[in-house]
Amino acid sequence: REQAHISFMALGIALIMLTVAVPVQLGGPWISVAWAAEAVVLLWLSYQLRMWQLRVYSGGVFIVFLMWLFAVDTVAALEADLTPLTNEYLPVYLVGIATTFMGAYLVRRYKSESFDREAPLFPALLVIGNAILAVAVPIQVDEVWIAVAWSVQAFALMSLSFRLKVVEMRWISMGVLAILFVRLLIFDTSINFTMWDAESGTWVSRRFTLFLNYRMLAFASGIAAFYGAAFMLHRLRGGLQSWEKKELFIALLVAANVLTLWILSAEVIAAVDSQIIDVSGRTAEHVTSLSLSLLWAVYASLILVAGIVWRWRHVRLAGLGLLAIPVLKLFLVDSFALEQGYRVAAFLSLGGILLAGGFLYQRFSGAIREFLFEHNESGLHTNTN
Questions:
Q1: Domain with 27 in it
Q2: Within this chain, do residues 226 and 102 fall inside the same structural domain, yes or no?
Q3: How far apart, in whole angstroms, are the C-alpha atoms of residue 227 and residue 313?
Q4: pLDDT at residue 317, as a whole number
Q5: What is the model's pLDDT at position 270?
Q6: Angle between helices 313-329 and 249-273 (to 10 degrees)
Q7: Does 304 reside within a domain?
Q8: Gap between the terminal Cα atoms of the chain
Q9: 13 and 84: one domain?
């Protein structure tokens, strides 16, 4: 027994010396690479040798690795002028992601040999691995490609959560989608359509192409991720909790439509501000206001029609609610802000949309009343009693 204690003591000293030697012998981002590799090897040995002590030390090394990665390497990478995807920090994040997911795999595979208190390790490692990936994205790529990468990550996590039946991946996917939603609204909406001209030493305008631009690429990828996640929740309903089938599904659809209407409105504003529509000054303001009113009215009408066709009561109500916005805007804002010609055009256009809706209601009143007030619906199941 005394011999065993001496052996464990010698092993502990050797591991400590190995960990301390890493920053002494190595430099830069390779310190994180070595510590990450050491942590996952120790975790694997702990299961092979059935020594839980190695697992404890592996966790300590992993914590040191994370602290160094986020506090040192990430800060240095943000301050440096890095070439996207071809810089010395890329291996750090790749190894960190790989070792973290490998650790999650080992914990899952040898679950029967672990203690009950180690159960949270698997979801924790999944969260940490995806956090490293999410942090690596804005360091390795820039501008709209950040949103594109996060969209792919969120969709992949949602898909894997159903394929592998790992609910934790679905939770992480929701977190990535939430971050993506905020980024699109706050950062990617105001993408600067100017660039620095080295020859003239001034900022010059980029050529703006309606819908075919980098901002639209960022929003299109994000919208596709939200719709894709909602589709999987609706299609693969088995095993989901009730709030995932209803509240989460509706939230994803709402977020997707908010982003869609947001980017369409931004494109309309940018089109008027650019040289695509040759207007300026006060006229540009009138054209923008009129265009937004018509856009919102048409979009609301399409949502309303979709709700009727697919018999989704919540979608129909959302369409009616959205249609009320341009109507109120017309009477409360446009009536006083627009010049007479634009005001007449706004009333005629919106009136035409409402008249078309009234005609359809009169023509198919029985079917529409059934659609509006039915109790048993496909898609979004609700109880109206």
A1: 1-142
A2: no
A3: 18
A4: 83
A5: 85
A6: 30
A7: no
A8: 73
A9: yes
